[in-house]
Every structure is written in structure tokens, then in C-alpha cells.
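Board notes (copied after class):
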Amino acid sequence: MSLKSKLRIEDVGMFVALIFYAVAGIILLAVLPLTNFPPHIGIIGILSLLTAYGLFGKRAWTIWFVIIVFLVGTTFSVATLYFGRELLLDISMIAYLILTWIFTVYVANKRKTLES
């Protein structure tokens, strides 16, 4: 039995979005102690993990969390890019920003696959 059938993966794009939100949430929560516990990083991390859970369970409320993570994540990334002075941080924020936009558009287009 393949891994795809064991995980009930019907749409590979939604699975990749799930992985993105889960990994982003874990990374944001992991860097929280390294950045002196700013609350916005923790909130984005928790919202990302909740979004990943909603995508895994195909919950109807997930689209709202995707939109919230999009708005908060975009604001966070742009502010970090504007005030940032480190090249590695700037590159990671650009990657996070682009991936957030891509997966927001993808999930919004596939929102019919989520439970109603």
C-alpha cells in the first residue's frame, strides 16, 4: 500500500499546502525563544499549525484561517523586509511571502474540496 493511499491524499497540491503550513508553524514556534518571545511570531505559528490541521481534516473553516495567515503573514514579512538588515532573514522572508501567496491562491481555488 502506497504512502499516498495511507494518508488519504486526494489532491497533491493540498497536501503540499498542508506541509507548508505545518513546517512554517513549527519553524516559527521554534525560533520564538531565539527572538525573545515576540507574540506576533507565536500567533502566526499557532495559526499556521491550525491551518495545517484544518487542511488535513478538510474542515470548512480552514479557508478563513488561510486568509488570516495570508494577511498576518504578509504584513509580518513586509515589515521584516522593510526594517531588516540581514541577508539570510530577508531571503527567508521573501520565500515565506511568495509561498504564502501561492498556497493562499491555491487553497482558495480548491476550497470546494473542503467540507461544507
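Comment from the instructor: The chain has one domain: 10-106. The chain has five helices and no strands.
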